[in-house]
């Protein structure tokens, strides 16, 4: 296993090196290429292209178009709300953090904070509104989204929908039992939130593994 | 283009094998962060040695390492965005209730509710097509925001990020 990996690495390094060697092509015919490593300055001044007979002047560096990861959707969502942009960017900040890219993390956080400030505030903040929104999600929106995701066999979307739906049920139950939860917090129990999926539990200690997404305890933090 | 090590301090069990095997001492720093100047491209000695899986290799530049992002149907994305919006509204409500409340227990409870909603919204947006910071999707979005009437004060951040996503740090082409 290790030797296969070592070989793969060698191959990758080889490809890397090869791609940095400049190649030259005759721009007059666009057919004749110099051998890899061969440079125009090494050729005699009276050199002529063996294909079209044009001289050195027509030799130019071959520019290979870089491979681009295609933009998924040419219709860039121009209707994203400020709130959505805020969540999108705070998540990308985490993505940078995981890769040890702290400068980019800070920049994405700055953008997220900006959209957080300007996002639309709810006109009326009452508990019943939370129940109402959760009800609409659980009775309608999750079903519709899951149906769509299943139709196109989108596993990533299905995964996110399964987790958020489970957490939504948990949240609805927490809100229903609010009085009991507040009393528990009063006796010294903590509110633990899984930092990966958002699962919430009021208890002395966090569970060993998140019951929704399965991450170990250290990813579940008390607020 | 350089592929270098990063250390996840939450997984690190201080066995220090990375210090034993690192040829340049890049893993031996006061703050636990790898010295990227000293770290050797694609060396991975520390990654193979670490018994806790705390070391990973990441690329400073992208194209050869990260595959293109998976295609996501627009219809799926719209449904995901809608749910994210609902979660963000609940976050706002929980935050407002938190502001109004004078009960410490209730404040703690609402803080948890707000945080959970933010995390769910983030997950839904991420799976709605914005998983990888280095992706072209993100780059296109940043360019679009720059062209739209984005506030002066934040333009600088946007410019820097675009430079990072296009330049050597986030390294997209």
Automatic annotation (TrEMBL), chain A:
Instruction: Provide the alphabetized UniProt keywords.
Output: Metal-binding
Specify the Rubredoxin-like domain's residue ranges: 21-62, 189-223
InterPro entries assigned to the protein according to its UniProt record, in alphabetical order: Rubredoxin-like_dom, Rubredoxin_Fe_BS, RUBY_RBDX
Q: Which superkingdom, per the lineage?
A: Bacteria
Q: Which SUPFAM superfamilies match?
A: Rubredoxin-like (SSF57802)
Q: Give GO terms: molecular function aspect only.
A: iron ion binding
- What is the purpose of this protein? Rubredoxin is a small nonheme, iron protein lacking acid-labile sulfide. Its single Fe, chelated to 4 Cys, functions as an electron acceptor and may also stabilize the conformation of the molecule.
Tell me the protein's name: Rubredoxin-like domain-containing protein
TrEMBL record, chain B:
Any idea what this protein is called?
A: 4Fe-4S ferredoxin-type domain-containing protein
Pfam families recorded: Fer4_6 (PF12837)
What PROSITE patterns does the record tag this protein with? 4FE4S_FER_2
Q: Which organism is it from?
A: Candidatus Electrothrix aarhusensis
Top-rank taxon, per record: Bacteria
Which interval of the chain is the signal sequence?
none
Residues forming the 4Fe-4S ferredoxin-type domain are: 30-60
InterPro entries associated with the record: 4Fe4S_Fe-S-bd (IPR017896)
């Amino acid at each position: 296993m290790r030797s296969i990996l070592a070989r793969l690495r060698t191959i990758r390094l080889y490809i890397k090196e090869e791609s940095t060697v400049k190649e030259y092509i005759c721009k007059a015919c666009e057919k004749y290429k110099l051998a890899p490593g061969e440079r125009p300055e090494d050729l005699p001044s009276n050199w002529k292209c063996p294909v079209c007979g044009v001289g050195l002047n027509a030799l130019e560096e071959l520019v290979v178009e870089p491979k681009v990861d295609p933009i998924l959707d040419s219709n860039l969502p121009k209707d994203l709300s400020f709130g959505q942009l805020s969540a999108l960017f705070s998540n990308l900040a985490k993505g940078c953090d995981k890769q040890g890219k702290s400068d980019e993390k800070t920049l994405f956080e700055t953008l997220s904070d900006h959209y957080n400030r300007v996002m639309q505030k709810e006109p009326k903040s009452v508990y019943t509104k939370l129940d109402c929104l959760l009800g609409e999600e659980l009775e309608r929106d999750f079903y519709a989204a899951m149906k769509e995701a299943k139709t196109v066999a989108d596993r990533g979307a299905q995964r996110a929908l399964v987790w958020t739906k489970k957490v939504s049920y948990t949240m609805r139950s927490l809100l229903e039992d609010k009085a009991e939860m507040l009393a528990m917090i009063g006796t010294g129990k903590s509110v633990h939130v899984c930092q990966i999926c958002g699962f919430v539990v009021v208890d002395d200690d966090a569970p060993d593994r998140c019951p929704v997404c399965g991450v170990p305890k250290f990813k579940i933090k008390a607020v | 283009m350089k592929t270098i090590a990063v250390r996840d301090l939450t997984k690190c069990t201080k066995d220090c094998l990375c210090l034993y095997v690192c040829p340049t001492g890049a893993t031996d720093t006061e703050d636990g962060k790898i010295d990227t100047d000293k770290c050797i491209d694609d060396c991975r000695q520390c990654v193979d040695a670490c018994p806790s899986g705390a070391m990973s290799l990441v690329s400073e530049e992208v194209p050869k390492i990260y595959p293109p992002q998976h295609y996501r149907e627009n219809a799926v994305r719209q449904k995901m965005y809608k749910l994210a919006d609902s979660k963000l509204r609940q976050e706002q409500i929980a935050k407002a209730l938190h502001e109004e409340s004078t009960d410490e227990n209730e404040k703690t409870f609402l803080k948890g509710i707000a945080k959970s909603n933010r995390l769910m919204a983030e997950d839904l947006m991420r799976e709605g097509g914005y998983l990888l910071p280095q992706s072209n999707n993100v780059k296109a979005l940043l360019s679009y925001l720059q062209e739209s009437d984005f506030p002066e004060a934040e333009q600088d951040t946007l410019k820097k990020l675009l430079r990072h996503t296009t330049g050597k740090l986030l390294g997209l082409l």
